[in-house]
## 1
Amino acid sequence: MKMKVSYLLRFFAVLGLVFTISIFGFAQQPDGRGGDGRGRGAGGAEGRGGGDARGGGGGQARGPQTPPPPFKPTASDTLKTKDGDLKITPVNHAGVMFQLGNGVLYADPVGNYSELPKADYILITDIHGDHMDPNAVKALSKAGTVVIAPPEVAKTVTEAKPLANGANETIKLNGKTVKIEAVPMYNMTRGPAAGQFYHTKGRGDGFIVDIGGKRIYLAGDTECTPEMKALKNIDVAFLPMNLPFTMTPQEAADCVKAFKPKVVYPYHYRDNDPATDPQQFADALKDTKGVEVRMRNWY
């Protein structure tokens, strides 16, 4: 009798072990997440704009990531220059396309540009992921495409020609001479901690692009610096206004009053964020003579 009880105890012990292993194995079956199961995006951006340029929010999303749809901008502006009409197309966040005849120049392309024209030139202002996107650069490049960027960007986008603050480069766009000047863009007060800045002086480039005698200022990520206030003869400016990384709309408007571009586009802001609503910027400049504010759809 004792032997039968012993066999029964062993039988139920083995049965319990098999059941436990089976349950554990079922719990470890793949759930469609792949890799480490976290489905992360590309990272590197600062959570700006209508999304953060990471293609998936960088969260814990399950399942395969769906690529973002291609950008299909439908609205452009035309700037008359001595070398012909310059077509200016806002694309997304800080991304702008400039077309002079058959020549195409982009600033800060990030995301899916697969249905837009290939680039002759690409300008990149900073290392953050809402300005620097190696995949977008690759998608837009063709034989002969030239990338111009700060030295810090060139460490990642290795094909880029480095251009430091204060330096300039002369290129040919549609056979016409275009001068590109790198200017400072940086924080003076804002940063992640005391004594630190989101954008240190000298790391990134703002750009002044002279096309057909028209001077176009791409501010990049910056506060209202003394260098910006001192700008002269700017025909078109693109100014950021998002917190905590750059400026408030009022700060950006105050800076515009100092250097008075003929046309200014608010860009690089947080979509649907009342604190960085570009309408505040437009309202602050409504009585400023000689300055036209152009509100466009960036998101």
## 2
Amino acid sequence: MKRLRSIIIVSVGLLGLLTIVAQVGLHAFANGSQKSAHATASQSVFTRQDVFARGTNNTLLHRHSTAPNVWTNWDTLPSHQVDSSPSVVTDTATQEIDGVYRSGLDVWHFLYSPRTGMFEETNLGHACHNQPFGGFCSINGFTSAPTITSSHPGNLDVFVFGGTALKHDWFTTGDGWADWEILFGDHNYVDDPAAVSWGDNRIDVFVHISDDHQLYDAVFDGSWHSPQPLGGHLTSSPAAFAFGVGNIRVAVRDPSNTISSSFMSNGTWAPSWTSYNDGPTSAAPAITISAAGIQGADDLFEPDANGVLHLFTVSNVGTTLSSLNLGGAPILGAAAATNAPVSTVIQPVGSTPPPTPPTPTPPTPPPTPTPTPPTPTPTPLPKQCVHPPCRVEN
């Protein structure tokens, strides 16, 4: 798995918070909702979306769109037992998808290829870095769904709660996975974290702290800064995605069971929150830019009380523009999703590939003319004297 990554990210939370990642159009940044995502500010063509979720029998489910408002059925991937919502990020160069979920006390990483259907997993464990005998990490394990993002090509960053601590693991090309470390302890974390990145070596990790139920943001910009309050009143995990340098949108479920959103523009957070009018919801949604290319609109994936996933396209002022019941198998908690431009997506496994154009037959070269040898000049015969005596000519 040591390969460069141009990344898109998505993220999800336990209380049905769905995180979705939008494609990174700038560098190779990755940012997603609840888990993390990086996105371009606008889309001009239809964007394929891949969605992952936890099934009712603790399996890893997957489906994807094939055209606007056209989706495949859910399929089941050969994962270990899934005990949390997943989080995913897409490598825009290879179209391979990196994801994480919690199984028991451990975090598992998976790699999925839409090109070939390849699926691989790695157990990232739960031991902490620089802690005697693994510290309490090896005893208590993890207590939330993990989130995944990338702030630099070839890097992955994973965050998860372990009791009152926020814990961090990372992957770098050439070195592989590191050991877990504790970032910020002694906080009353609830639900799941959400990590996004909008620039090289910039990470924002959003957390829900039960002391005041505000949204908090822990920032890495070369060094870590302790979580700072951003307001709001959360009743779910946060969802977030980045859409350009200094731009982030976050979404949460509020006490009225509706969606509230805030955003960062050019590095500055808005002074107030916006309420979406997509109706009551049992969980916060995953959020990303519109895959259909609607300017100034977001896509929200929301599971209802029956575990059915719904897709809402909402304007940036909270007006619902369209909705789609995705139906399918019931899911537990939030889903995770990624966007990928159709033009870069290779034909998925199980589908009919486009016909191969016939190879043109090269024109037949004209025959090479065979040179005609010159006609030899006949040697003149000597004149004969027919009626002697004959005169001799000089």
## 3
Amino acid sequence: MTLVFAMLTVQVLLGGFDNLWHHEFSEDLPHKPWARRELKLHSARELLYALIFTSIAWLRWEGAFTYLLAALLLGEIVVTMTDFVVEDQTRRLPKFERILHTILAVTYGATLALWAPELLRWTNEPTGFTLVYYGFWSWLFTLFGAGVLAWGVRDLIAAVRLGVPTWQRHPIKAGRSLLPRTILVTGGTGFIGRALVRRLVERGDNVIVLTRDPIKARDMLGPLVTVVGNLGSLDDNCRLDAIVNLAGEPLVNGLWTARRKRLFLNSRLGVTASIETLVRRLKRRPTVLINGSAIGFYGDRPDEILTEESGSQDIFMSSLCTAWEDAAKRIEALGLRVCRLRIGLVLGHDGGVLPSMALPMRFGLTTQFGAGRNWMSWIHLSDLVRLIEFALDTPTVSGAINATAPEPVTHRDFMRGLGRVFGWQLRLAMPTKLLVTVLGELSSLFLSSQRVVPAAALKHNFEFRFATIDAALADIFGHRKDAAPSPALPLAYVNENCPICTAEFRHYQRVAFANSVKFQFRNIGGRAYDMAAYGLREGDLKKRLYATLPDGTVLSGVDAFIPLWRSLPYYRVLARVVALPGFYHLADAIYEGMLAPWLAARNQRREMKNPARCVGGY
């Protein structure tokens, strides 16, 4: 078995690399709606491997059980072949991934050929399992089994989560405006773009989003946003009042090789050139362009205070930002007011770099880059969206605008402030030389010093809601000392024709009444029109629970249960547990993958017996 284990180890290492590099970093499959079927197949294969690896590490399948093991091994082939077909139907595989798949197939076939004589000998034994110990191999394959099991569960949870459109989890409410504008947003599915699109729709504007992945954008933004795959699809008579250009390949998704540097540049200049072409042919041109840039424009300037008047440096990041801004400046000649936003480190709870920086701190570990004396110029996501709004709405604002908070901090102070949010921390310093050696030029994003102040924004009387790092972090992580509990409670929408749903919420109502808590829920049948402004129909409301928060935010599924439970005595501990990472995803998978579909099927059977009843869960 030694040679079989060695061949399977090669299979595991190659498969792990394929998962990490192609499925995670390159394609980001767990967040692509069209990848749901592929993720299901990946999960099935990984769960098969988990059973096979863990069992052969300690057991020998003998007699009739050998044929069962052979069926599992052949089942892996069927799943893999189906996966190959689905991949060809849904995405364009890079050459290297195709080569790697071929190597994996050949390796697996060779492994089975080597293992076949041993399996034949096992069939001659009495049916049963025999305990075995292969020393190092037993422990290694137990580890492999646990790893692929975790990955299989993770892929299954992702596949279940993709079954619910993202926009239905957090619907956007269309606002009303006396003078609604039509605004084109590029990069509308990114961290900043999503928040901006939501805000523009909520205030009553019509939003058009340009994206490379229209399926993902529609899944994420919903029916209230128009999605286009290229600007050529917009008619010459199309009315655009403003353009916000945030498109560009992310800088942190891999080392800065020569190829990736070209991709960074071309992705920004290409979209900006397309915008220029669009503006030239439109019969009615927009009045303003808000063009993204970054404080990387200034380069590495240790303690120098930087305003919009400060110059750039002769390094890659400065050159990238300068080229992007120059491309935007050319559009000024077409009669548009152009604002160039030099954006700092954007802080928010659902994207950007902050969640990954905060993750080790949840376990009591703070990592500092180098000596920590480099300056970090940051901005709260909410303030950045408001600043973009301000630039759109203020005719006197143009040119370079530093999109940073008024009070930059050193990296050391930033990490200490973040550490205070999570309590006691063990502080570790990562040597500068190690970062440079491992990350190359990418390390400049973490080590460069830029002490930037928003002189232009302050000059035009823009007010930052989060001027200090402590205020921003307290808001993001929900630890504001001055925040009092809201007397208003979530309002739930329940399918009155689902007996289980109604019974559960009647129970919640009794618990609330016994403890003098006002608990509210409405029947969907009579109040479905409440949700029309969110793009939700009655059929959508019956598929899962929806709840409206006091500020008008609508949540669904497990996200809706958590604030409801928080409002009820005896359920608050449950709400805290379910909100924890890991527990949340497991609860979401159970609810969306099992409970909600079961309720829908159950109610459908009831409807067939009594057509007057409505279909759905809650």
## 4
Amino acid sequence: MLTPGNLIKTVLAATVLVGLSSQLTAQESRTSPVYRLQPGENHLDIYQRFTTVLEHTARIKSVLDFDAEIIEVKVVQGNPQQVRIFALDTGVTTITLHDEFDQYFQVEVHVEGDVRHLQSYIRRDFPDDDVRATEIKGAVKLTGWVTEPSHITQIIEIAEQFYGTVINHMKVGGAQQVQIKCDILEVQRSKVRNFGMNFQFLSDSGYLISTPGPITPIQALTVTGAGPVSTLAGFADSTLTFGFINNNKIFQGFIRALREEGLLKIHATPMITTLNGQPATLLNGGETPVIVPAGLGTTAISFKEFGVQLESVPHVLGNGRLRLQVNTEVSERDFSNAVTVNGVTVPAFTVRRANTEVEMNFGETLVLAGLISHREDASTAKVPYLGEIPWVGAAFSRKRYTKAETELIILVTPEYAAPMSEEQIPYGGPGKFTDYPTDKELYFHNLIEVPLYGDECQHCTGCWQNGSCQQHPNGCVKNDQGSSANSGIAEFGSDAESSEKTSVPTSYSTADNKSKTTTTSRSRELIAPKPKSQP
């Protein structure tokens, strides 16, 4: 008896059977797909040890010209329009089909090695990468793109567990040019206080000399019947010298009273652009000769670099991160600590250097190194007991107090970089917005550089007569307001005595081959006068 409960069970059982049947059919169609012949060229890709059914619209009479070591061809029982192809070994072969209408069809069969196991690991462990594995003569070739350079090494390690030889054709996607900007900022402040006194008192009957320090060393002292005679080494360290003289007495005082303050600021910003994983070097400075030993007691000359230097090797990691190897340096020659060897002066070097490896995101700024230094140095030279007496002891002593502070910081900022088109290049550049002075500006106003009124070809006769010249083949550019930057110029006359300005009409050809005629005047005044009318 069919009850409602039994009816529901029957429907559920039928649904399950239908689902299992559809799954089995789908699975069979994936493992044994059917390839139907198409007009024109036919290409069939099949994995090794897999079967594919080749189907034709007409009856197949014979199958010719295939490599029996690569594939095996059998007739499908009960269906003369189909043949079954079984892949025996990797390779490429061609099948020729002869049908009942005496027509011939060719199918190129490419048998690939079964790399699905390796491909499943790659797809599961690296879902954001597009890598395809292909078996070639017992080896595997990996092609495609990865999101991070480290994935290449990891994928190769997995592939080596399946194949002894791995051919790597993988590439890292995204931008691969990196611009590195390094900021080096340093401030040095120093204060030096000096105070000391030397004196000598000479008379025909005696002498008293006090030289703690000394400020003025005694080079020679001679005592005769007429009285003592002293010779001083010099007065280079004395800032105040005085004396009193009468018929038979001499008093000389030498005071060193000086306060020195020093300030040094350094701000260097080297920038360099390089490819991922490629080293790059920048040097803005020079090379100075230094003496180096050459063997057998001889010396030779070598050159040492100095200035602003930057060496860097970026490694893009993906997801906006990179690993950066940086070696930056700011050095300068220090002749105050130089040495002389065989008549050749070899300078010392003051160096600020940082060499490190960091990992960071693009666009971020990281402090690579820093220094805060405070130094105080005090020294005194005095005559015992006399130099310790308040006020009076200043005449028998010398003091020096030095205080120095140093602050140094080194920053680095990496950015993705790409070339720009010619239209994006900003007009001008270093030194392009100033001009040489006229005679009046140089001799009477003491100006060696003045603002530029016009463009770089304003003094070029060929440009304002013919529109362009050999040096400026494209003619004169336009300024930001759209008007011509190559205008006529009105400047001081060639004679130094003449200050009359003239106006020169200028005809030129712009980039769009339009001709214009304009007249302006070049003036060094803050308010430019109106140009004269054209003739």
